[in-house]
Design brief:
Elements (H helix, E strand, L loop, with lengths): L9 H12 L6 E5 L6 H13 L13 H7 L6 E4 L8 H11 L9 E5 L7 H12 L5 E7 L7 H4 L3 E4 L5 H10 L10 H6 L4 H8 L2 H15 L6 H7 L1 H4 L5 H19 L4 H18 L4 H12 L1
Parallel strand pairs: 1-4, 1-5, 2-3, 3-4
Helix pairs in contact: 1-2, 4-5, 10-13, 13-14, 14-15
Amino acid sequence: MKFEEILGNNIIKKDLEISAQNETTAHSYLFIGPDGIGKKLIAENFARMILCQEHGEKKGCGTCSSCIKFDSSNNPDFFEIEPDGNSLKIAQIREMLENIYQKPIVSDKKVFIINDSENMTQEAQNSLLKTLEEPPEYVVIIMITSNENMLLNTVKSRCVKLNFQGLTKQEMSKYISQSENESYSRMSDTLFEMCNGSIGKLIKVSNNIDEYNQVEKATNNLLKGGVKNSVDMFNNYSVLYDSKEIIMELLDYMMTIIFSYINRTGDSRMGVLKSVQLIEKTKRKLMSNTNYDMCIDELLLKII
């Protein structure tokens, strides 16, 4: 996928393209921004251009040995490091450092992408510091993060920081218009807004569109006074009991609907505001492994 085919963040893409063409790339980058907006796609495309054996505007030619190997996921000078479970461990970074000090095979450069770099343990980050400070001249390291606060200041200070933004409504709409996913046509404006310019989140939502729509219908009914008793409440929100894998996302969506309702109507009744607090409390309980059904029972009973 070429830069022009990736939606959003056009200024950053152009700057990276120019630096690759002029062969003025930095040794280390930090790509910062929300999940699902294309940071990794842009990093991979940038890596492809850096490794290309052509020069100037021909960078990313697609026909040289480096590009051909890259496109077949077989370029020996390109490495992607992903979290092992919930973290990026020091052993992974040490293995990466061993590769860093071996010279390129096909290209003049070697590129390393560390995805979800906020998941690096502190030991892993510290082990990377010296290389970030004095990298071999042929190395480019790209760290990708959605939460830079989890990274050590000493790590961040050694990188060129690029702040990526969520896609605009127009860019998101363009993506939807090019897609054959019929679920997008069943999304409300509120659900679309919740995706906050993230195609990754849009795709995840579309995979569970029925559950989101049930939560939206139930919550709007609740806010309009259509839920008369606990039996109604449990029936309307039965989807919460059957959606354990995405419960955090559905609870977040309940809050989004409530806040949207408050902004639209100005209704600031204590009960409405209290519902948000109850949802947040339920999320904390679920994260601490409190009994699932009991958590949902308590939430619904207290809201009604």
